[in-house]
């Protein structure tokens, strides 16, 4: 006999609950093994279970089911609509279709529910009135009293009893968390999913108040308990989600598991987001949802438990954590080691610089590098690995070892101190300091790595730039081999020169016969030397050379006598510091005795008169027709002088110019003192103009409109003004621009003046562009009156210039500023200007201060004046009430207040536009109409007129607050885009987005009603090139004032893809005609704009295979829905291709389930289930097992069986609460078109208490059916 493969498509069976389920279809295919299929008796689940996937039924025996996983949200199941319980599947399934289900084995866990705390409540005698049960149910229990006060009480007690009394009490704690970033710590708590608040001794009367809303006097004592959340006997909503931290540096994440025993387990993970060593206190926040149930402790048979409302606590504090940092050893990697010569690194350096963090007890240990270490091993640039040992200071036991890498660096500059006394170094023009010289400046020079000779010293100045006999206190820079530098300030250095110059003499005799001077010149003496003069500082040209005798005295050639004219002498060298070399012997030949000659003129020579300076050589050469000559001495070395008959030198200094001709002799004398004289004539004349130079900086003069420069002032513009004869005071200076024309200079400017200088002889010299800077530093002056000035009639708040001029006799005066440009200021004793508006009528003392254009101020001059005003303004007010527009902001304006007057108010001093207006109440306070609602009420007030002096007058007036202004606003110039829709119009918020600055004088923005002329559902999507629709919007305020805002810019787009639901399962027969694309959909496709007939439906099978080529089995299929705008959505599913139906057995189970909730039929009322065989083969039907899944605890005595209605064959599923666990045959269905029916029977037990049920029972049992093809 051929075995059959069974595929079952069925819904769940529900016991003890009203429900209507669709039919189940069974398909049996011929295979070699015995088939097994199962259905399930199960309780209806919340909607969250509908999205679970459903796997195919396993075809091998035995079948092992996975345990079910509960969602962390407990919801009360609904009973109005049938809900299909579906298992997980690899493909999405739709709740409208039957699902392929597999029986799931349920692993039950005995719930552990913490007991409610028992409270000792004093006995309270309660006197209850007679009960009218009919009115109680109809008039009382049907209503809840959800007043604002009651809801607030309900919410607050939920917060205190559960959030604070349960969650915070369990979660609050102190934890230790490592200080490094990303450090974590975990902990978990298990809390009950409920709390209880009770009425005790009259307290918490709100419990009965919120549950009972009776106007017939029902006693409050009925309802005394309020349960929050999900309790074992009072089921209700409980959620706990979105747990987070309130602190940026520490985050808290949590997972919540709702347990079967009415508890919740919360697993917390605390993560340090930012590294930190400080303690942190943070709040843990979360969203808590609690259903509330009111419970009566009196007459519970009438006052049954009532579900009040669901409370939602969003981002509430559910716990508080104190985070203490855990500081541990964290060694750096790599460790940076400062180079050093010793092998041992100090323990403090290792502890304090080699670790990123150390614990507080770190100083109780010492630290060293393990292994063999040597001197000089810590050289710069070295890298490697090492281990740091942390050892106990008391017993050297190693506490911890930290391996790491290291790199040796040298960042420490050399050390040393400046020598206290001045250090002397020989000057030297040819080199800089040596290192040995510079080390003399430093005491204690050393470095962490570099040896002494490798430390480079640099002085701030160069030796070759330092002159002898100078001292310096400057820095010396110390640099080691790694380039680390340290500067020592105020090192003391003295430069000396005690070294004599050097040079060698020639051995031959030097000829000095041509020397004309008594003492040979330096040039003459250089002939004795070999061109190798040298000195440590003095330049060769500055080395002094002397020809001396054996005693060191300088040789005078005039005093020498010798028969052969050959002499012995000694060369001595001397530098600029006076250092003399040793004497070196030389030989030389002596000088001549013949005087110079020349030809003199016969006419008198004219010399310029002078007050100083004798005749020069050039002056005297004018006596000769050509240059004088000598046998030895060059012409330019011949000395010339003018002598009288006695041989004395003639002077013409202070000889007045005249036409007198003077007689004299001109003398020529060579270097050997040989001389010749010639008679000559001369005159003293004056033809030279004065001389001088223009001063390179400007000269400052005080501005003055009343005079010109003096001669003394003009001489200040010229440096070294002089004349060859005229004295300085006799040189006349003439200026071409006058002081009284020169305005004060600003900034860095000056005036250019041309000056002409003339001496007594009329010789003139012009000095161009001398620099004169004119300034003004002189304060103005004035002649003040000795009387009191009356200003009582002034209308302005301050004094004008004309007012202040009344204090003076005449105009004020200044060295430069004109009277009209002198500023006059009247101030009080504190230097503040008077404000006439603030002055009462009396005599005042003030002080006048004058200021010119350059800001020069005079000293304060005391004056007296009369000022003040005590009369208030006047006006004529209207007799009718004045209407003001209602407003949310902006007080009454001046123009609005002027509506109270028939004409402008007046004042004796204050100008009309300066009179202050305000609206006052009877107490004098300002009246505000902001936020005063518009109405017909007439208000009384006083309108106040106040002048600038503070004098005021008030008049009684009446006013109303009205609203006759329409809203205002403008269109949003940007195009606003909306998604096309056929189902709705614009919302008010959307219409407001079309407008800018929508507002009203009274109505709030959100209360302004907007109405559009074109509804959104009538606007098709804009086509290409069509920018937008123009929509008119009418804005109406609460008073009915309306404005139309035209041509707002609305663009309609369609970007939403169409949607549709696939049939499930998609089963077709091999060889049938390819189904139309819409046959894959369960209903018509939908779209936000395109109508269903306009939505294109396309079908594609996996691997692009045609439907006719699909083999028997399962294949992927993609259905694409595309609307008119081109938006597309793909729906993926699986299509099943079956073989020809003649090879299958079809089993259909129409299921119409209805269960009772009363004592009828012992608590169990079953429908009739029918199984019909549409195949030719017989099928044996068996029940293999029954499993209790949930909510079966109270059915401890249940007996439940199933009966074949065709032959009355019975199989007990549950006997005395124990479930069937082996296979029992129910019956055999014969060939085609035969069937049999079965139904459930039994009892919930003789002792079952139907009256104690708070809610209907919803037990879940699963029953497995096996089908065996014959």
TrEMBL record:
<keyword id="KW-0732">Signal</keyword>
<protein>
    <recommendedName>
        <fullName>Ig-like domain-containing protein</fullName>
    </recommendedName>
</protein>
<feature type="compositionally biased region" description="Acidic residues">
    <location>
        <begin position="53"/>
        <end position="90"/>
    </location>
</feature>
<dbReference type="Pfam" id="PF12245">
    <property type="entry name" value="Big_3_2"/>
</dbReference>
<feature type="domain" description="Ig-like">
    <location>
        <begin position="1019"/>
        <end position="1052"/>
    </location>
</feature>
<feature type="region of interest" description="Disordered">
    <location>
        <begin position="40"/>
        <end position="96"/>
    </location>
</feature>
<dbReference type="InterPro" id="IPR022038">
    <property type="entry name" value="Ig-like_bact"/>
</dbReference>
<feature type="signal peptide">
    <location>
        <begin position="1"/>
        <end position="27"/>
    </location>
</feature>
